[in-house]
Amino acid sequence: MYCLAFLFLPITRGSVLLRIIDIPFEQATRYHIWLGHLAMCFITLHGLCYIIIWVMQGVLLDKIVEWTDDGISNLPGVITISAGLLMWVTSMPPVRKKQFELFFYTHQLYAVFVLFLALHVGDFIFSIAAGGIFLFIIDRFLRFCQSRRTVDVISVTCLPCGTAELVFSKPANLRYNALSFIFLQIRELSWLQWHPFSVSSSPLAGDNRISVLVKAVGEWTDKLKSNVSGAEGERALPNQSCSKIKASIEGPYGHESPYHLTYENLILVAGGSGIAPFLAILGDMLHLKKQGKLCLPKNVIVIWAIKKSDELHLLSTVDMDLICPNLSDRLNLEVCVYVTRESDPPLEEGNNSEGFTCSVSSLLRGRGMSVLVGTGNSIWSGLYVISSVIGFAVLMALLDIFYINPLNIVTWWYRGLLFVVCMLASVILFGGPVIYFWHRWEKTVLAAEEAEDAEKDNRPQQSESAHTNIMQDNFAPEYRSVSRSIHYGARPNFEEIFKSVSERWGNVDIGVIVCGPMTLQSSVAKQCRSQNLRRGPLGPVFHFNSHSFDL
């Protein structure tokens, strides 16, 4: 029960608590995993001990199906353990990575687990774990309200490497940073599946848009690519309409503060599509430099490991020369790419016709995201949580005074059921009105934004061009003002790279951010530790940070 008391806290994605202690959701998830393993070990041991005793007494079947009004009922406990075991087995890494849909769907049994746990142990024992569960219910209802709004996909850029850039509209008061991520659902593909994607656009761009890069690596992403590009084997037409593509979004989530801007020297290490958040980071620095604002990073090295050279097209999503002319005079930026599965550069094939852009020219803004979750308004979030908690206390008091005590209700499972009903009712009846007024406030702000945009639209503006889909160079032309190198048939040697950086930059603090597979994170972490242990009085200090997460 004490493990369950903390089990749900790390996965309250929009929780004010996580924001106060500044632990982003992707890092808090690992505590949920550890607590889940520990809780299920105790629960399984608990169940096995009773099974052994009942077998020795010869009353196993009678005890398993027992549902009594006096004391603990066994059947709800059996259902609780069964649901927990299904979630536990399918959450193991071999199953989760190969059969993510199976893991995702079986994890929805958490509702069955919680309900029958309350019926099994009654209200008094259940209250030990009720705090964390209640906060999760508060967060889940808020996320449910946010995700009811469908968001228009303003444009989709499909690149030859099988990655699509999706651009959504967002309200100006929606705050996020370059290391944020969102959960995305497309109902045409699945009504239940939500998938996390790192934001690839800079929040400082000022265009009220947010974009993500989606790489086709699984069943859901393959369906998305097919949905965008048309039937399999058919080439989509340029500038085709994407007006039918709608999505539901939760978030954004992530760090409250942009810690990547607190280092003068940065090493960004990415593997494959892990380059997405670093494109947003580079966009942050470019916009700050262009606007003449304080931007601490001066020396930045991007180390990117990819399997094939067609992934280089991902760099075209950020036009550095357009955002910040004379970049080399303002920022010392190096981009080192390692193509691991190609020994030589591909032959020049002229214009690449595999990539295309579909855009919605009629939707200059489109239906935007909601600000109910993520890095939204802290005042409204606080009011929602406080009202739900007060509502729960009021409902429990009224229930105790006018129903439980007068009728002398002592049945454990029934009191546990009433406890859960009060938790749900307090969030809906007391927290719901706060969400309603929050939503009304959001619509008022959004109307003011649209009026301001309408005034801007009355002035003649140069039409916004879509991302180019013609790549005449192996390296994106948008990066020609940047020191760059491509290594074919090789992997990054972090010992040599970090040693070279130590000699060049000297006694400084260096922020190292990694986004990629666990093997890549481990290699970079070991090298940071090794360099720090061996550093001399004039050597740099490497500060390791990981942006990757595994769900």
Overall morphology: globular
Spatial separation of the terminal alpha carbons: 24 Å
Topology order in helix (H) and strand (E) letters: HHHHHHHHEEEEEHEEHEHEEHHEHEHE
Q: Class by helix and strand content?
A: alpha/beta
Count of individual helical segments: 15
Strand content: 15-25%
User: Quick one: biggest sheet?
Assistant: 7 strands, antiparallel
**Count the strands?**
13
Helicity level: 40-55%
Radius of gyration: 27 Å
Low-confidence parts lasting 5 or more residues at pLDDT below 50? 231-241, 349-364, 461-474, 476-480
Q: What would the average pLDDT be, to the nearest integer?
A: 81
Summary tags:
551 residues, alpha/beta, 7-stranded antiparallel β-sheet, 13 strands, 46% helix, 16% strand, globular, transmembrane helix, FAD-bd_FR_type, membrane
Write a brief caption for the model:
By secondary structure, this protein is an alpha/beta fold.
Structure notes:
With 551 residues, the chain is an alpha/beta fold. The chain has 15 helices and 13 strands. The protein has helices at residues 2-7, 16-20, 25-57, 60-64, 74-90, 93-98, 100-106, 110-147, 219-229, 276-291, 320-323, 378-407, 412-458, 494-505, 518-534, and strands spanning 150-158, 163-169, 181-185, 195-198, 209-215, 246-253, 265-271, 299-306, 332-339, 356-359, 483-488, 509-515, 541-546. The strands form two sheets. Strands 1, 2, 3, 4, 5, 6 and 10 form a seven-stranded antiparallel beta sheet that branches. The chain has a six-stranded parallel beta sheet with strand order 11-9-8-7-12-13, with helices on one face. α8 (110-147) packs parallel to α13 (412-458). 39% of the residues are buried. Mean pLDDT is 81; it is low at 231-241, 349-364, 461-474 and 476-480.
